[in-house]
């Protein structure tokens, strides 16, 4: 097995990072960490509160700090939707492990996130603005990922696809 042990799941809000990550961690018999939950616990406030009280720049720095800290751990890490947009975060994650982009079309993501009051970008943007954000992020997710997996299946099937990729290319 490779020395690299962390699997960082990235993608747009609603692509299934946390759901797939929990399933994948169970299949791999390893830890699962939701980066947003990690940041919330560390900061003692919700993501929305962080955005409102400290600003998005503070949150993005907290993501970088989280990537650094979590890169030392084994397991599956579900990143926030913006975490792998910063090159430094992607570099740290790819050095410590592997970044996997869960590719899900915008309409599917939007159905999953629409109306969620806990997501600052959803609260502060229209559907059209979110579509623009999505389109601007996809090339960066692709560029900063070691693997790209379609997430247009069930979470269980998506986790199986990731596991199969790792069995085929990493764990051999």
> What is the average per-residue confidence, as pLDDT, rounded to a whole number?
92
Biggest sheet strand line-up? 2-3-1-4-5
Helix content: 55-70%
Distance between the termini: 7 Å
Report the structural category.
Answer: alpha/beta
Shape designation: globular
> What string, H for helix and E for strand, traces the elements in order?
EHEHHHEHEHHHEH
Report the total helices: 9
Let me know the number of strands: 5
Q: List segments where confidence is low: pLDDT < 50 over at least 5 consecutive residues.
A: none
Strand content: 5-15%
- How big is the Rg? 15 Å
Oligomer kind: single chain
What about the largest sheet? 5 strands, parallel
Structure description:
The protein is an alpha/beta fold. The mean pLDDT is 92. It has helices spanning 17-28, 35-43, 47-53, 56-70, 87-96, 106-113, 120-124, 127-143, 155-169; strands at 6-10, 32-34, 75-78, 97-103, 147-150. The longest helix has 17 residues, at 127-143. Helix 2 packs across helix 4. It has nine helices and five strands; from the N terminus they run E-H-E-H-H-H-E-H-E-H-H-H-E-H.
């Amino acid at each position: 097995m490779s020395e690299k042990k962390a699997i960082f799941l990235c993608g747009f809000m609603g692509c299934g990072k946390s759901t797939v990550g929990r399933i994948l961690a169970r299949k791999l018999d390893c830890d699962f960490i939701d980066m947003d939950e990690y940041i919330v616990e560390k900061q003692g406030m919700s993501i929305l509160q962080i955005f409102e009280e400290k600003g998005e720049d503070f949150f993005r720095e907290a993501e970088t700090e989280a990537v650094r800290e979590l890169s030392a751990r084994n397991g599956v890490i579900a990143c926030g939707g913006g975490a792998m947009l910063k090159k430094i975060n992607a570099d740290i994650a790819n050095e410590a492990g592997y970044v996997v982009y869960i590719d899900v079309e915008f309409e599917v993501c939007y159905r999953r996130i629409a109306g969620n009051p806990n997501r600052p970008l959803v609260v502060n943007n229209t559907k059209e603005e979110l579509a623009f954000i999505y389109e601007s992020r996809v090339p960066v997710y692709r560029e900063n990922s070691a693997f790209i997996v379609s997430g247009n299946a069930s979470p269980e099937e998506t986790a199986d696809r990731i596991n199969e990729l790792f069995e085929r290319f990493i764990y051999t």
